[in-house]
Automatic annotation (TrEMBL):
InterPro entries membership: Beta_helix, PbH1, Pectin_lyas_fold, Pectin_lyase_fold/virulence, SO_2930-like_dom
Extent of the signal sequence: 1-22
Name of the protein this chain belongs to: Right handed beta helix domain-containing protein
Region (Disordered) residue spans: 367-400
Keywords: Signal
NCBIfam families assigned to the protein according to its UniProt record, in alphabetical order: beta_helix_1 (TIGR03805)
Length: 400
């Protein structure tokens, strides 16, 4: 497992990428009007500028926004003695920070206890989330914000070395985006640790997803502007002990995720799950399912297709299945379910040397013509491996 290390001083790499006229705008956490001063700095920043957060605990009552391209927001660290943006007294229900501009680097600060999402970016291409902490400090609660790190509708997204705890939907969520890398991050005590939804071309690797309801989710949902999620690689992650009871608010799609799920693929295509370490996931290490809800989207494809599971290490799994009927099935099989569960829709290849259970579930939401492969079809020759994601060098330089 690789886990990234700094090989070039961050300041030097940043200086190479910035114009000579770039400024550093420093803002102090101690000012009585720190909220206003910080928002003013984000408004007045010009392309190439660095907005530098002073060390200390920032007591913020309003959310922040940034819509200037090529700006760096940099703190003094994510732990004690660093730059801690504390939104416990937030008056509105929005996110802590909203970014709507391209080529932004967010690095080296913490965001705590937002009423809504922690850090959200929308339509922000080539955005980098680096060395951040987003946390709801009271632990898992339905009243916590939905998402910790939340890039959406973007091209070229890098999430690197972040920590998220307590999100009532997903700790790290990337939606309706293209060319995505989520790496070397830790997600714990969220409903979903990491979620890739309705997105194309993603690598999720070298992360630790521990003590969530579900570790890593790859979903495609109907009635969204960008559909047909595909080409997702989930590899070299540690996915263990995802045992936190589901605390998502009722009605959210992730409220249906069974406690004890390692990786869950739903209605996506061309997904590879390989070289991961799975252990202590009470429902299953890997679940592959179709979308089993009514919908009115004629273009939506609810079946999982070309899902490949290979070369993973499987520890204990299936000892506490949390889906309806799971306990009864486990009892009939001697007390536990196999590490890999498949609902029987679409097609999948599982070349790990472990047991696989095909539930062969009927579902009226599936197209009547959809073939349901037999369990014998689960082992076979996988398609050619998917290519890895290459992000622009300008993005990689920011984290070296």
């Amino acid at each position: 497992m690789r886990f990234h290390h700094l090989v070039v001083p961050f300041g030097a790499a940043l200086a190479l990428a910035m114009p000579a006229s770039a400024r550093t705008i420093s803002v102090s956490a101690d000012a009585a009007d720190a909220n206003e001063k910080l928002q003013e700095a984000l408004i007045l920043a010009q392309p190439g500028d660095v907005v530098e957060l002073g060390a200390g605990v920032w007591k913020l009552t309003d959310g922040l926004s940034l819509d200037v391209a090529n700006v760096t927001l940099r703190g003094a660290g994510t732990g004690e003695g660093g730059s801690i943006l504390d939104f416990s007294g937030q008056q509105g229900a929005g996110e802590g920070l909203l970014v709507t501009s391209d080529d932004v680097l967010l690095t080296n600060f913490a965001v705590l206890n937002t009423k809504g999402d922690g850090i959200k970016s929308k339509g922000a291409d080539r955005i980098v989330y680096h060395k951040l902490r987003v946390e709801w400090t009271a632990g898992p609660k339905a009243t916590n914000g939905a998402y910790g790190i939340y890039p959406v509708e973007s091209t070229d997204v890098l999430v690197d070395s972040v920590y998220v705890r307590g999100a009532s939907d997903a700790g790290i969520y990337v939606g309706q985006s293209k060319n995505i890398v989520v790496r070397e991050s830790v997600v714990t005590e969220n409903v979903a640790g990491i979620e890739i939804e309705n997105s194309y071309n993603a690598d999720v690797h070298d992360n630790i997803a521990n003590r969530n309801t579900g570790g890593i989710l790859v979903f495609d949902l109907p009635s969204l502007p960008m559909q047909g999620g595909h080409n997702v690689r989930v590899f070299s992650n540690i996915v263990s002990d995802n045992s936190v009871p589901n605390f998502a608010p009722a009605g959210n799609i992730v409220a249906s995720v069974p406690t004890g799920t390692g990786v869950l693929v739903m209605a996506n295509r061309n997904v590879e799950i390989f070289d991961n370490i799975f252990d202590q996931n009470g429902t299953a290490n890997v679940m592959i399912v179709g979308y089993r809800y009514e919908h009115k989207d004629p273009k939506y494809q609810p079946l999982p297709r070309a899902i490949v599971v290979r070369d993973n290490q499987h520890g204990k799994a299936g000892y506490a299945p949390a889906f309806p009927g799971g306990a009864e099935i486990a009892a009939a099989m001697g007390g536990t379910l196999p590490p890999v569960l498949w609902d029987g829709s679409g097609d999948a290849i599982v070349n790990d040397d472990v047991g696989v259970l095909s539930l062969n579930l009927p579902d009226m939401a599936m197209p009547q013509s959809a073939a349901k492969p037999s369990p014998a079809d689960l082992k076979g020759t996988a398609p050619a491996p998917l290519p890895g994601i290459t992000l622009p060098e300008s993005m990689e330089a920011k984290v070296r």
